[in-house]
Amino acid sequence: MQRERRTLAGLVAKTERAELLRVLKNAQRLLAPVEVLNPFAPALTFPSGRTRNRRDHEKYLTLIDSIALLHQHQRARGRHEAGGAAGKTIEYVQVTLDDIALANELAPEVLGRSLDELPPQTRRLLDHIRALVRSRTESTSAKLAATFSRRELREACGWSLTQVRVHLERLVELEYIELRHGRLGSSFVYELMADPEAPEAVAHIGLIDVEQLRKKYEYGRKVAGQTGTVAVGGETRPSPSKTPSSEGETAA
Known about the structure:
Layout: H1 8-29, E1 35-37, H2 53-70, E2 78-83, E3 88-94, H3 97-110, H4 112-115, H5 120-137, H6 142-145, E4 147-149, H7 150-157, H8 161-173, E5 177-181, E6 189-192, H9 210-224, E7 229-232, E8 235-238
Parallel strand pairs: 1-3
Antiparallel strand pairs: 2-3, 4-6, 5-6, 7-8
Helix pairs in contact: 2-3, 5-8
């Protein structure tokens, strides 16, 4: 790459990169400093088993805020009179369920490794197991396809016996797979306990399925009727879908 930068192609790429950076900087200058309101925040889920999850949780919420902030020119802004002696007005853009869906799609890439209960190598072996089971599903029954031996797995992933054994034991302990055979005189046969076709990018880091939120808030809006409020966690809150009035004010 260092040599490539000295060629004509490298000089062209350098010029194009400078132009892209100029456009991105100008786009950032269009963003105004405005608050972000997330009415869905109380319903979100996140793992809390480790101390570092507190820091990662804030990163996840900030990721959602950033997506909403980038769309500030595509949405109406809400305003709320804070009251008090100062009489300040809070101006904000509101998070949508599509913002949360996009954040959930990005989170496994930016937070997945730190949130995953499996070490990277163990997660990689689990991916090999899922691929092995998927490749056998078409030619045999689902029950038989989900079983595999150590030898079959070694041949599929190209790992050594020691590597496979160590990570298989961890997967058994965490109940991702089950040992079906392995007594004296019989070979080790394991069974995958998860659906090999199911997407697990979001599930394994504990984020809520956005479709659940859609159903919850759609139901809340129907129950609320003309009042424009929904019940969340035992208290009444403004409906997330409420449109700002002509005077530019919405409930905070």
